[in-house]
Amino acid sequence: MANQLAREVKAIDANLAPGEVITMREQVDRRTWSQRAAVSLLAVFGGIALLLAGIGLYGVMSYAVSQSTRELGLRMALGAGASHLLRIVMSHGLGLTLAGIAAGAAVALGLTRLMGDLLYKVSPRDPESFAWAFLVMAIAAVAACFLPAWRATRTDPVRALRDS
Question: Around Cβ 135, how many Cβ atoms within 10 Å?
Answer without folding.
Answer: 10
